[in-house]
Amino acid sequence: xxxxxxxxxxxxxxxxxxxxxxxxxAERPRLTVTISNVHVSAQLIDxxxxxxxxxxxxxxxxxxxxxxxxxxxxxxxIAKKAKKAKVTAVVFDRxxxxxxxxLSALADAARKEGLEF
Length: 117
Hints:
Elements: H1 3-21, E1 30-35, E2 40-46, E3 51-57, H2 67-84, E4 91-93, H3 102-112
Parallel strand pairs: 1-4
Antiparallel strand pairs: 1-2, 2-3
Helix pairs in contact: 2-3
GO cellular component, one term: cytosolic large ribosomal subunit
Function: This is one of the proteins that bind and probably mediate the attachment of the 5S RNA into the large ribosomal subunit, where it forms part of the central protuberance.
Protein name: Large ribosomal subunit protein uL18
């Protein structure tokens, strides 16, 4: 099996393990983070009702800085939007990624804005 195919398979298996245990509700929605090579996105999802409560992304933004700094900006944005939606606590879905680097920067920034997880 090619190296990239094996990495993709391993990530999808990790993602499945995380999603089997993490479910968002209206009181405590799921904060899911998607990180690509270029952009960072975060969403607050109510899995029971099946809709998104808030979203923040770097797509279309003119923000500059390192990707870790952009992830931190997305973290503060999603926390502010969560406050507007009257959400104080969330369940964190790391989407199969290791909790380090950009993911950690986003989570720390969201916690500084008052989001609990």
